[in-house]
Specification:
binds aspartic acid; 8 helices; about 35% helix; 8-stranded mixed sheet; alpha+beta
Length: about 300
């Protein structure tokens, strides 16, 4: 099987000053993941690596650089899934963990559960030897929080926010994996959990059809289980590009939702679609010497 990876850095109205660093970030993430695949790394290793890189990049709303909730705190959601066994791991509303995607993988591999939240997830992290950081806040988000706090503005237009990250990969053995990680939406109430960590909504991977990572308005994505919808279209024989387009059409037509998806089908073909002003995205297929990107 020809190896391939696609990554995203959120579907939203990416402001001018963030376009260049977003493009650079998703390209580097795709390059690192492809290098891992070419060294015979698994699809799971590749998506974890791609997302870890973006979590550490402060330009994205995941890990370091995440948006702050109404109490001025970072609360993180993340999930990872692999398509051979349908094994999955997820964490939600977790605090002070630098790489929540790795914690999600630990839930998958070292617990009997799929989703751990809040205090329990943090406790699990400590047991697993994760370092608990004092803060993942960056100045840009602290300033935004001050602004929102002054206006006491709980809801923003979705197209103004974003920067969630995700990755989908297929390895040499045909295994597919997907991963998604986010700080969620600015000024969310504490305890709000979005789609990103919900299997079938923010991601899905099934070797029999393909893999998906979604981003956008979480409250809409959850209602139609967007990533599973993409997989259903793949199962009906649509290719990756068409399945991506049809799922975003459904998101818009059925509930007027906004967002985007990245897809790899079981044949290794890549697709993406979004109905927001922009989506940061990069992909690399075996045989390409550098990633293709768009913002
Ligand atoms: N879907 C994420 C959430 O609602 C946000 C995003 O993708 O930008 O938490």
């Amino acid at each position: 099987m020809k190896r391939a990876v696609i990554v995203h850095g959120g579907a939203w109205k990416i402001p001018k000053e963030l376009q260049k660093p977003s493009r650079k970030g998703v390209k580097e993430s795709a390059r690192l993941a492809m290098k891992c695949l070419m060294n015979n790394g698994s699809a799971l290793d590749a998506v974890e690596l791609a997302v870890r890189y973006l979590e550490d990049n402060p330009h994205f709303d995941a890990g370091t650089g995440s948006v702050l909730n109404a109490e001025g705190e970072v609360e993180l959601d993340a999930a990872i899934m692999e398509g051979k066994t349908l094994n999955a791991g997820a964490i939600a509303a977790v605090r002070n963990i630098k790489n929540p995607i790795s914690l999600a993988r630990s839930v998958m591999e070292n617990s009997n559960y799929v989703l751990l939240v809040g205090r329990g997830a943090n406790k699990f992290a400590t047991h697993q030897g994760y370092e608990i950081f004092t803060s993942l806040k960056v100045r840009r988000e602290t300033e935004r929080w001050k602004r929102l706090h002054k206006e006491y503005k709980e809801t923003m237009k979705f197209s103004e926010i974003g920067g969630t990250v995700g990755a989908v990969a297929i390895d040499a053995t045909g295994n597919i994996a997907a991963a998604t990680s986010t700080g969620g939406v600015p000024f969310k109430p504490p305890g709000r959990v979005g789609d990103s960590c919900l299997i079938g909504s923010g991601l899905y991977a099934d070797n029999e059809v393909g893999g998906v990572s979604a981003t956008g308005d979480g409250e809409s994505i959850m209602k139609i289980a967007l990533s599973k919808v993409v997989c259903e279209y793949l199962g009906k024989g649509l290719n990756a590009e068409k399945a991506a387009q049809e799922s975003v059409k459904l998101l818009e037509n059925r509930i007027d939702g906004r967002g985007g998806v990245i897809v790899i089908d079981k044949g290794g073909d890549i697709g993406l679609s979004y109905n927001t002003p922009k989506m940061a995205c990069a992909y690399m297929k075996e045989g390409m010497d550098k990633p293709e990107s768009q913002v």
